[in-house]
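Customer escalation, tier 2.

The customer says the design service returned an amino acid string that "doesn't look like it belongs to this structure." They asked us to rerun it and document both sides in this ticket. The original structure tokens are below, unchanged.
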């Protein structure tokens, strides 16, 4: 429809353009004829035959009928062979008088039915001085004028048909290709929905569909990772629950059936108590982590003394530090400042970091604790000597149930959730948390808090 409207509009515009051009040409020719007539008139001899001959030649050149009439409507010169006597009598005198009033007449039509086809008529007054002495009428066939327009219209129509056909073919091929690729995407999404995260969409397009396929592939990779994490989560939590439950079940049965003698029962009951406490701690950690990740933990940001909080948390590990003969190197910022954060949350962060430091520092090793105030921020680092963690393991150190030892045998008491909780609490504070490991320095955790000088 758009092509048809455009073609019609263009055709009408061209018609108007060619008619206007023809009008201008006929007016220019009328001026030339007037000039020629005045030349004869000024010489005192008007050679009617010669002027008629010239107008006949101009008739053939312009393909236009030329009349020269006097004020009374009498035919002065006719470039054609037809008889105008009867027609001029029937023609209203006003049609001629309009030209003799000095106006240039422009008409389209059959000129009172004289012509069988529409013509473009130019009426031009021939003047001597300021007086109109003759009326010049030039009639040019409109179909001849618009012949070029018809050719253009025909070419346009043919072009329209060809372009429509090509457009239809292109649309058909594109839509078929698009349908096939949408079907492939649909099949891929269906496969992903069924759990086949290895399904890849091979669609090489640089448009929105290609972007969609690319994002679906990324989503499949992410879902695959999540599925792996889910399976690891189930495996790890099953392991961490099964071990203490097996111990509790075995020791309780041994006490009940008399396998464990009365003198040893207290010792084994203490083990049962420790294992049950371990289960309680594991359950609480899982619930707390889920609460944090679910946005159910509301932080209460208040100013506090981070150095004093560190000293308080270190005191909780006094017995374990002495048992392993560890050295604590405290390098606390001396400048007076306060930190901003949720005190209970930061207590838990410090406790978990100190807990890991004490666990994984070799007997007689050293733990370095440092605070530094810089640019309205407090940097807190906890570093311990001991085994180096590989770069590959560092990538997953904050994942759930990931333990610092790959064998899971070194730390039987840990749940592997402590560092995940640390990460989430620091994230809720909109602060940074980094970990590094090297043979020279050991393992170092650093996090930040907002601060202010006193």
């Amino acid at each position: 429809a758009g092509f048809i409207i455009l073609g019609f509009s263009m055709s009408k515009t061209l018609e108007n353009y060619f008619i206007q051009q023809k009008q201008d040409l006929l007016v220019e020719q009328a001026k030339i004829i007037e000039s020629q007539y005045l030349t004869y008139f000024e010489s005192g001899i008007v050679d009617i035959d010669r002027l008629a001959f010239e107008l006949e030649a101009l008739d053939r050149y312009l393909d236009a009928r030329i009349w020269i009439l006097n004020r009374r409507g009498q035919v002065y010169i006719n470039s054609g062979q037809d008889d105008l006597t009867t027609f001029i009598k029937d023609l209203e005198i006003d049609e001629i008088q309009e030209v003799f009033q000095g106006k240039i007449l422009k008409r389209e039509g059959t000129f009172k039915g004289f012509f069988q086809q529409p013509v473009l008529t130019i009426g031009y007054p021939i003047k001597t001085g300021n007086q109109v002495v003759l009326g010049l009428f030039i009639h040019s066939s409109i179909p001849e004028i618009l012949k070029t327009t018809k050719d253009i219209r025909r070419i346009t129509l043919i072009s329209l048909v060809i372009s429509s056909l090509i457009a239809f073919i292109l649309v058909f091929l594109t839509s078929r290709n698009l349908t096939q690729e949408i079907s492939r995407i649909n099949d891929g999404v269906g496969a992903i929905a069924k759990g086949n995260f290895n399904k890849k969409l091979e669609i090489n397009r640089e448009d929105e569909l290609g972007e969609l396929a690319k994002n679906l592939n990324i989503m499949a990779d992410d879902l695959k990772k999540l599925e792996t994490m889910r399976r690891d989560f189930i495996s790890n939590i099953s392991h961490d629950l099964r071990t203490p439950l097996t111990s509790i079940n075995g020791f309780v049965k041994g006490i009940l059936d008399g396998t464990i003698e009365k003198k040893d029962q207290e010792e084994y009951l203490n083990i049962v108590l420790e294992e049950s406490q371990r289960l309680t701690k594991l359950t609480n950690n899982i619930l707390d982590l889920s609460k944090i990740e679910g946005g159910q933990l509301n932080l209460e940001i208040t100013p506090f003394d981070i150095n004093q909080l560190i000293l308080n948390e270190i005191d909780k590990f006094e017995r374990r530090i002495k048992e392993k003969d560890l050295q604590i190197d405290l390098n606390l910022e001396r400048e007076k400042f306060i930190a901003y954060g949720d005190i209970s949350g930061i207590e838990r962060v410090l406790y978990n970091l100190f807990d890991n430091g004490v666990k994984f520092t070799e007997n007689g090793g050293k733990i370095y604790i440092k605070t530094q105030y810089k640019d309205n921020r407090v940097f807190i680092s906890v570093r311990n000597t001991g085994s180096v963690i590989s770069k590959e393991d560092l990538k997953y150190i904050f994942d759930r149930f990931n333990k610092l030892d790959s064998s899971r045998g070194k730390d039987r008491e840990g749940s592997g959730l402590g560092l995940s909780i640390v990460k989430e609490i620091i994230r809720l504070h909109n602060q940074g948390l980094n970990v590094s490991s090297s043979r020279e320095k050991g393992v170092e955790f650093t996090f930040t808090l907002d601060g202010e000088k006193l």
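Tier 2 assessment: The sequence is consistent with the input. Confidence is low (pLDDT under 50) at residues 405-412. The two ends are 77 Å apart (CA to CA). Sent an explanation to the customer and offered a walkthrough call.
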